[in-house]
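Hi team,

Filling in the usual template for the complex we talked about on Friday. All components are listed, including any nucleic acid strands or ligand strings, so the model treats them as one assembly.

SUBMITTER: L.P.
PURPOSE: interface mapping
COMPONENTS: two
RESIDUES: 638
SEQUENCES:
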Amino acid sequence: MTNQQQVEILLVEDNPTDVELTLRAFKARNFANQVFVARDGAEALDFFFGDGSHPLRDIGVVPKVVLLDLKLPKVDGLEVLRRLKADERTRAIPVVILTSSREEPDIAAAYRLGANSYIVKPVDFEAFARAVSEVGLYWLLLNEPPR
Amino acid sequence: MSLRDWPIRQKLTAMLVLSSGLVLLLTSAALVGYQYWSFRQTMRSTLSVRGSILATNSTASLAFANDADARELLSALRADPHIVAAALYDRNGRLFATYPGDLPGGALPAAPGPDGYRFQRGNLIGFQPVAEAGGQRLGTLYLASDLAAVDATLRLSGVIAVAVLTVALLAAYLLSRVLQGAISQPVLMLAETARAVSDRRDYSVRAAKLGEDELGVLTDAFNHMLSRIEAQDRALRESKEGLEQRVAERTHELEERNEALRHNAAQLLAANTELDAFAYSVSHDLRAPLRSIDGFSQVLLEDYAAQLDEAGRDSLRRVRAATQRMGTLIDDLLKLARVTRVEMRTEFVDLSVMAREIAAELQRATPDRQVEFAIAQGLEARGDARLLRVALENLLGNSWKYTAKRTKPKIEFGSIEENGGRAFLVRDNGAGFDMRYADKLFGVFQRLHSVSEFEGTGVGLATVRRIITRHGGRIWAEGAVDQGATFYFTL
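RESULT (copied from the run log):
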């Protein structure tokens, strides 16, 4: 589902239906084949800091945006965010939190750790699809990424 | 050291010695003075007797101008060593005979003075007329006696007086040393007792009473005073000890209560932490499946619309509506939970300004509605601004919602006097409610209208009541069906 040269969005999401609904929303905008999905926090960290066993690590892929859920198995989203923003090599990559949590402590912690945006997933699928596709549009087309 | 600082012993001694000395001095002076005076009187009368005898004996010598005889007569004066000079003058006042014979010239008056005896220039002098038996004056006799006898007597008296005075003063001093004790002893003992009391704070000492005089009365009074102070001191100490005991007991009690409170607080904290975790789960985990249900219903509607008939599509739309409503319910429940958990920050809040802002927001959200707002000026309260905004948003939002079917909707925000305090009110002329169900208004998920009539989850007023309760206030409502509703609250 991914082409190695075209990873522009890293989606870190453990819930398969949410993954599917997100990809469906991207598909409507033709972003779907540029998305790589990490199923937990450990895999996301492996993507960036792994020992080379990760299939995409060696070619130095830098996604244009990371969509990060907070509640993740193994390593949670805030920890992934902290590690990404603490490392010189990954600090510049925009990270958008995409989560169900509207809890103030989560929002505050995310911004304190350097999140670039915080989106609460709407229950309404149409609103959700709209939100996801707008995020994709903004970060892939409108935003000028660091080189 | 001035006199008033002398010790009382020395004062008493000095008093006794001085007063007895003064009495003795005056007595001695009077005695010596009288002796001096009477001795001079005696001297004068003796000289005058001697003079008149000599004058009588001299009449013949003067009458016959026999100066050898006269000198013989005068020389008899040799028997009295104090007679320093004597002379006879004739009737014309001329010097006729002198005694002693070798008297230097000028030592005698040139002419007789007035008759009589008097003290003059340290001597007793006298002019005695010499006359015949018939009264014919023949001349004048002059006698001069020195005062050595007087001086000797006076000196002796003085020495005796000084000796008596010295002995008497010594006796007075020794006596006073013994006698002053009668007064100074009780005073000194009182002073000693007073010093012991003030130095050692020992109120149990007592001054010894030495007699029934005024000092005895003073000692009694002082001892009585000490007894009372001792009793009061003891009472004070006992009450202090009692007080300390009670303070210790209370402190212990308080510590126990504090411990219990700490325990409760820890339990409460644990419960709150659990509640937080619960709310987080609700927020995150309950919404995810809802999104799936909604999302895949939409997938069905989009991708399989051709295979579904209208009834099937309608069912899917109902599924979606229900999931979305559940999403709203979850969001409202989370808000209600947050209202309970959020930390209060108390400050002055201008509720009038807040109400105007909310009214403007409501108007912006539904621009085609025409609602008359009457918001009183300057309604201020102390409270948490964010929570009070949530409460006002709910109350004004309710009024906005329930006046939707009125032709001339009106919403009012003001205040009234209530039991001496102030109650705020939100009043509308909307759908109102039946007072029989007034107690159900503020319950969670309690609604007096169906969703088809008016939208809502039944969480709003429960949230408002929690906010008002957290501010220590009270909320109640009045209304009637189709007559509008008024919500009152205090803060």
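MY TAKE: The longest strand of chain B covers residues 137-146. Chain B touches chain A at residues 279-280, 283-285, 287-288, 290-292, 294-299, 320, 323-324, 326-327, 330-331, 334, 338 (CB under 8 Å).

Thanks, L.
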